[in-house]
Amino acid sequence: MNRDWRAELKRVLPHALLDEPLSRHTTFKIGGPADVLIDARSVAEAQTALRLAAAAGRPAFVLGWGSNLLVRDRGVRGLVLRLAGEFERIDFLEGGRVRAGAAVRVPQLVVACAQKGLSGLEPIVGVPGTLGGALAMNAGTRDGEIGPLVLEIEAVDLSEGDVRRLVKDDLRFAYREGPLRGRAALSALLRLKPGDKGDIMAVVSRYQRKRQQTQPIHTYNVGSTFKNPPGRFAAQMIEELGLKGYVVGGARVSPLHANFIENFAGAKAADVLALVDLIRERVRAAIGVELELEMRVVGE
Ligand SMILES: Cc1cc2nc3c(=O)[nH]c(=O)nc-3n(C[C@H](O)[C@H](O)[C@H](O)COP(=O)(O)OP(=O)(O)OC[C@H]3O[C@@H](n4cnc5c(N)ncnc54)[C@H](O)[C@@H]3O)c2cc1C
Q1: Which segments of the chain are extended strands (E)?
Q2: Is the pLDDT of residue 60 over 70?
Q3: Using CB atoms within 10 A as the burial measure, which of 96, 97, 233, 262 is most buried?
Q4: Which of 24, 108, 127, 141 to mutate for ligand 1's pocket (most ligand atoms within 8 Å of CB)?
Q5: Whose CA is nearest to atom 19 of ligand 1?
Q6: Is the CB of residue 128 below 6 angstroms from any atom belonging to ligand 1?
Q7: Ligand 1 pocket, 138 CB below 6 A?
Q8: CA 60 to centroid of ligand 1, rounded, Å
Q9: How far is the CA of 4 from the centre of ligand 1 (A)?
Q10: Is the CB of 63 under 6 A from ligand 1?
Q11: What is the third-level CATH fold of 88-214?
């Protein structure tokens, strides 16, 4: 059965990759193989792949830039869908509105908007993922999140392949949680504020510089490991417990930013998960706070 649906998918979409190591597609450089990884370049390709997987009873998962994901060492069963091609477009509309495909990278979108004199996205210029991932995670910083800028999302149901437009009440964003469970965003309509191009670009540059100084952006990591508990900072708690630089296997707590875990020496997902457990136990025991994961863990 497994071989049949994969063979059929490969026949219809020959660029599909079978048993593709996801370590090649995550910023952690960690993760076992996907049964099938498909770059869908159009709605039709996405629907074809999703419906073939669904007909064979296989689950589907949508992957962006892999910048918030820990894929376990035995990989992901079923279909891993990624968007490309027509989902990489940015269209500037009237009234400060921008329609962008879910595969557009966030830094590229922020700079393109700034260059058109459109403001709002500057705080997330350092989020290295795709627009789709940003919508799924309600990506943001202390200075702003993407959620309030979203007017509409076009999304495909991962289990049926049906496309729907999400508006108003469908668009419930919370802290690092978007409105997309069970769906892949295909594109979004954002409303930004017109402003002075030079001023907006200056703000973008300031955010970029700050990040370079405070985050280990040249290492293999997925950004913040844990969400900040209400009124507190996870990084501060981890640092106070002396865990900066703590090593398990090939994974370590970043010496620069205590809420980042780095794959510094061929780490396995198991190393990262063991380090996560250790941090949570120490924080629970010493401070009485239950840390919740911000990075998402998938696979088996
Ligand atoms: C150096 C660094 C700095 C970071 N800084 C920040 C920060 O300041 N703020 C912040 O919020 N995050 C930050 N992150 C984390 C990460 O970049 C964001 O969470 C980002 O939005 C994830 O996007 P992605 O495309 O990489 O998604 P992935 O990691 O590929 O996926 C993450 C989740 O989004 C889902 N997803 C991906 N694409 C879609 C889609 N098209 N439709 C529906 N769901 C989808 C996936 O299924 C998964 O559940 C940082 C990461 C790094 C490595």
Answers
A1: 17-21, 33-40, 60-63, 69-71, 76-83, 90-92, 97-101, 118-119, 140-141, 144-145, 150-157, 163-167, 183-191, 193-194, 247-248, 251-253, 261-263, 296-298
A2: yes
A3: 262
A4: 127
A5: 68
A6: yes
A7: no
A8: 18
A9: 32
A10: yes
A11: 3.30.465
Give 210-238 pLDDT, tens digit per residue.
999 999 999 999 999 999 999 999 999 99
User: Looking at the predicted complex, does its ipTM rise above 0.90?
Assistant: yes
Per domain, the residue ranges of the chain are 2-83, 88-214, 234-298
pLDDT over 90 (residue 279): yes
Query: 261 CB under 6 A from ligand 1?
Result: no
Per the listing, tokens 């190393």 go with: 271
At the topology level, CATH places domain 234-298 in 3.90.78
DSSP, collapsed to helix, strand or coil, labels residue 188 as strand
CATH number, span 2-83:
3.30.43.10
Task: Round to whole Å and give the CA distance between 253 and 164.
Answer: 41
- Residues annotated as catalytic (active site), given as ranges: 176, 224, 294
